[in-house]
Each structure stands twice: as structure tokens, then as C-alpha cells.
Amino acid sequence: MHFVYYYVSVWSTGSKEDFEKLTPRTSTTFNAPYDYLSVMHYGKKFFSKNSGNTIITKLPEFQDKIGQRMEMSPIDVYKLNCLYNCSTSVSFLEYCSFSSLNICGMKSCGKGSAKGWKRMSVAAGGPFTDHTNLNKTRGYFMHAGTASGQEGDSAWLETKRMSPTRECHVQCLQFYYYHSGSPSDQLNIWIREFQNGRNSTGNLHLMGQITGQPTFAWQFHKVPLNASKPFQVAFEVRKGDENSTGGFSIDDINLSESECPHNVWEIKNFERILTTADYDSSLLSPRLYSTDGYAYQVSIFLRETFFGVYFRLMSGNNDSALQWPCPWRQLTFIMLDKNPQIQQQMSKQINLITDPSSSESIQDISPWSIVTDVDLSIQPLTVISDICLPGNMFSVFPQLYLTTPIKWEEELD
């Protein structure tokens, strides 16, 4: 079966060997499907002698996506793991999309009159689709309703027991939740640590809580963990004191032995915004803070088929207590696609360092050059068409072409 067509007439001289066919005796695909997004795939104009296309994809939607050089695709990773017989991950612990009836070995129970967590594809009051597939195909999520029962009733969902393998004792829990209950309902995130293999009760530690107004949409959430002994993660939904017609749902749980990103700016429907907004209009992030207290903002300039990403410091609550200028600070931007399993996410990363010895550095940022006149009453996802590009806004990704839906993670150390 052909997946691409080669145009021999436009090949440059001497490039024929780059398009030679290989037999199963000399090459293997490890039974993987054809990968248009492989980092090893040639682009549509590679080895062209007249700027014409040398490769035409059989599926037109991949014509402008072949030849990407951001990162290995999930299928690239699968093939490398097969080639070198890698069966375990250095830092990854668990992923669950609840597609299987065994719900990844998790256990559910209820306290009071609560009915516990249920595996569902649709819930009364929402959500009406899981997060993994988002209506593309039927999927499942876990739901704990708060429409019935008494105040304080709770439903518990606990993962299987896991053991930390790294010396740093740092974990990151990432998942999506859907809140359709009352503002006083709670989703509490716990870890239960065990002293040894014989200990069955463990010690509970509250690590995070979600409450407040319902969202009626899938929302990304991250919780830093610090387990140093064998542990479980527990999700508790506790009914509040108000009437509810829904509850809490969770999906696409990822757990890894790594630090959580400091800030995440998730942009929904980004492809639609990019292709319909006026050329060179922009999106502005909310005010974000680094772990040291510096305030900053990210701007995305929209250019229909590609976009630019910029960064600038802003005035913040901690300015009087911070070091100015701020040399030897590192800003890390990571662009991620929206694959729900973090092991299969493709990414693009760039670092900016305020190096005083570099003429191209941002070491001249001082309290007099930070932005103080930004109208933060503007909603973060409002498209702005008249924003100017100040001298102290620094290019991060000057030109990125859209391949898959993305979200942004920003870290400032």
C-alpha cells in the first residue's frame, strides 16, 4: 500500500539514493503504522531541484506536516523502544483513560450515603463526552455525583500502590476534571503513604483541593506530590451544603516522577483562533509568577498559518523585594500537543538565560523596563489587534507552524 507518491522529475541531481526502497530483510517497522509525523520523514520539498514538491502524501491533511523537526513522534518512540528493548520508563509511573473495565486497578468506595465513583460515558449535568476522545469516538471517565446524599458524604477513588524509584522524591499528578456540582462541593486529592509492604492503612496527606463555581468544561489540573515511601493517590469528592444537579468527573490521569510545570496556559480551540483571527493580532496570557516571585506575561502573535510567541516581565506584587537587574535567570518555554498521555506528547522547548556577558541576552531588564501599563481587564483569550511590540518583549518562538493542537507550559527559575 502506498502512503506517499514521489515525483522523480523534480529530484535534484544525486538524491536518488535518498529515496531508495528497502526490503523487510534490511529494515523493519515493528508492525507500526506509517508515520507521517516521524522526525525522520522528509518534507514535501526535500531534494527538489526547482522548488516543486518531491513528495505528495496520499492523505492530503498530512502534506504540510511531513518533515517536522520538533521532536520524535509517538511512533518514533515506540520503534526505538522496540529496537533497543526498552520496556520501562525512567520517570513515568501511570496513565489512565478509563477505557478498560478494570479502571487501571483503581478501587472505589463511598462514605455515608454516597454511591462512590462510577465509570461512565455520559453523566447527568455533564460531561457529555470523555476528555480523551472529545466526541470523536465513545470513551469513558470516572464520575462521582453530588445530586443526592447529605452534606459531608464522600466518594473515594484510590489508585493501585506505587513505589518511588528516584532519589529526589518528587512526583507530578496531572489530570482533567469536570465540575458540574455546587460551589461548596469539593474534589480533594490525597496521597496515602505506607511504611512497608505489611502496612495496609497508611497515612493520608492532603495535597490539593478543587472547589468553587462549576466549570461545565474539562479543565487541566496539576498537583505536586512528595511521596518518599510506597503510596497511593486518592480522589475524594465531598458533597457540600447546597443543592447539586451534577458532581465531579476526572479523566486522563498522568503520574510521573518529575517536577510539575510552574505555570500552564492552556488555549482551547487554538487552530480555529489562529486561522480566523486578523493577521498579526495577538493573544495575551494572564499575569504569571515565577517561583521566585517575578511577574511576566506571554503573548502569541497570530499569523494565520504560523504564530510567534513573545515574553515580557510585568510589574507584580513582589517587585520591591526582588533583585534588579535579574542576571542568570532561566526561562523555559515548552510547547506541547494535546495528546492525553504525556509519554506520547510531542514538544518543542527553548531556553532563555539572562547572561550579562551576552549582547543578545535579556540582562538589561530592570524595574524601569518592565511593563506597567497593560490592561489586565482584558480577558486572556480576547484577540487584540492593536497591541504594540515593545522593545522589552522578547521573541521565544519567532515562527512555529501548526501541526497538532497545543498547550503551553512556562517556567521561570
TrEMBL record:
List UniProt keywords, sorted A-Z: Hydrolase, Metal-binding, Metalloprotease, Protease, Zinc
Q: Where is the MAM domain?
A: 94-262
Q: What is its EC number?
A: 3.4.24.-
Report domain Peptidase M12A positions: 1-87
> Which GO terms of type biological process are on file?
proteolysis
Cofactor binding: number and manner: Binds 1 zinc ion per subunit.
Q: Name one GO molecular function term.
A: metal ion binding
Names of the cofactor(s): Zn(2+)
Q: Which Pfam families match?
A: Astacin, MAM, MATH_2
Q: Which Gene Ontology terms of cellular component type are present?
A: membrane
Full protein name: Metalloendopeptidase
Q: Which organism is it from?
A: Lates calcarifer (Barramundi)
